[in-house]
């Protein structure tokens, strides 16, 4: 990277994403800066840079997972501070975009909160969003600023290619079929994908109507964007087992685990759960089945492409090419 371009770049890590930000900084040879944060007696927050950002191209590494509302508000306040301090560009690297599942009115009188969050980020002063596996890629269109919605399947491809076994990639619902097919194609898989026929029966509740595709005597990877309560994935795993699936691996970009990880760790039909570090979840060794893949290399390359104004699409393929064993 040219020195002049490098000098004008400042990277901040929000507290919730500090480790990932530091890892990214190492990959691209940039220092990562912390943010000065004050929380007032009434709960209000004030975030600011400790040094000038005038005319700088700023990258903020953050996520807006739990506590979603606090994380969003802190991010907005910090973006506003950068705008008022005359930053040149404000690039927000949101590894997990909270409220993405409220992307349409499912019934009358509902909000479209994914659009509201997009408006808030733009109004605060974000000039570019870099995110990973938006629940619905159409959310990119909720912004009038550029959005790089990176595919989580590239991160899983590198890991899954190391495995010797063959797998059928399964989408746990109709909405994830495209994502599952992309992963299957990246893995150059000769098996057809399978799709779980899932119906939402209420908030945080779903039921399975059937499995489309053949999983009998096959190892399967259930690939989803989010594990929240775990209901969708556990139900999918049970349905696949009933249909004769052998090994069951779960791969999901964003692990929220709102009801804890024990339901996976203690479930004998599940062999392994792979997530990325998009939500700041850590495994200090207590969970044998949980594997956390780092996004640092991938995001570092994308940030560099943004700094150098080069192609992000090429980063995708370079990333899986250079990691090919
Ligand atoms: C739904 O469409 C999403 O892709 C995920 O499958 C869902 O958000 C997972 O939620 P939970 O773990 O609570 O079932």
TrEMBL record:
Catalytic activity: D-ribose 5-phosphate + ATP = 5-phospho-alpha-D-ribose 1-diphosphate + AMP + H(+)
Gene Ontology molecular-function annotations: ATP binding; kinase activity; magnesium ion binding; ribose phosphate diphosphokinase activity
Pfam families: Pribosyltran, Pribosyltran_N
Record-level GO BP terms: 5-phosphoribose 1-diphosphate biosynthetic process; purine nucleotide biosynthetic process; ribonucleoside monophosphate biosynthetic process
SMART domains referenced in this protein's UniProt entry, alphabetically: Pribosyltran_N (SM01400)
The entry's keywords: ATP-binding, Kinase, Magnesium, Metal-binding, Nucleotide biosynthesis, Nucleotide-binding, Transferase
Annotated Gene Ontology cellular component terms: cytoplasm; ribose phosphate diphosphokinase complex
Alphabetized InterPro entries for the sequence: PRib_PP_synth_CS, Pribosyltran_N, PRTase-like, PRTase_dom, Rib-P_diPkinase
E.C. numbers: 2.7.6.1
NCBIfam families reported for this sequence: PRK01259.1, ribP_PPkin
Family affiliation: Belongs to the ribose-phosphate pyrophosphokinase family.
Protein name per Swiss-Prot or TrEMBL: Ribose-phosphate pyrophosphokinase
Organism of this sequence: Metamycoplasma subdolum
């Amino acid at each position: 990277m040219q020195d002049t371009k490098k000098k004008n770049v400042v990277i901040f890590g929000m507290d919730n994403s500090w480790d990932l930000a530091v890892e990214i900084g190492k990959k691209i040879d940039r220092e990562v800066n912390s943010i000065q944060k004050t929380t007032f007696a009434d709960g209000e927050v004030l975030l600011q840079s400790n040094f000038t950002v005038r005319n700088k191209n700023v990258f903020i590494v953050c996520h807006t997972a739990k506590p979603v509302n606090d994380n969003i508000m802190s991010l907005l306040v910090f973006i506003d501070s950068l705008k008022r301090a005359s930053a040149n560009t404000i690039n927000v690297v949101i590894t997990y975009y909270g409220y993405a599942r409220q992307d349409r009115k499912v019934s009358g009188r509902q909000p479209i909160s994914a659009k509201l969050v997009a408006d808030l980020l733009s109004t605060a002063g974000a000039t570019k969003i870099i995110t990973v596996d938006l629940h619905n890629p159409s959310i990119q269109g909720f912004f009038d600023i550029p959005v790089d919605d990176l595919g989580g399947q590239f991160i899983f491809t590198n890991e899954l290619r190391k495995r010797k076994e063959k797998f059928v990639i399964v989408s746990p619902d109709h909405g994830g079929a495209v994502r599952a097919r992309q992963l299957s194609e990246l893995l150059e898989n000769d098996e057809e994908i399978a799709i779980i026929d899932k119906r939402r029966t209420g908030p945080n509740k779903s039921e399975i109507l059937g499995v489309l595709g053949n999983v009998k005597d096959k190892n399967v990877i259930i690939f989803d964007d989010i594990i929240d309560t775990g209901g969708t994935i556990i139900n999918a795993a049970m349905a696949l087992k009933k249909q004769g699936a052998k090994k069951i691996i779960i791969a999901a970009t964003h692990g929220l685990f709102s009801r804890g990880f024990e339901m996976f760790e203690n479930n004998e039909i599940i062999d392994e759960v792979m997530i990325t570090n998009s939500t700041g979840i850590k495994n200090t060794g207590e969970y044998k089945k949980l594997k956390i893949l780092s996004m640092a290399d991938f995001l570092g390359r994308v940030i560099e492409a943004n700094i150098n104004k080069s192609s992000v699409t090429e980063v995708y393929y370079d990333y899986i090419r250079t990691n090919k064993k």
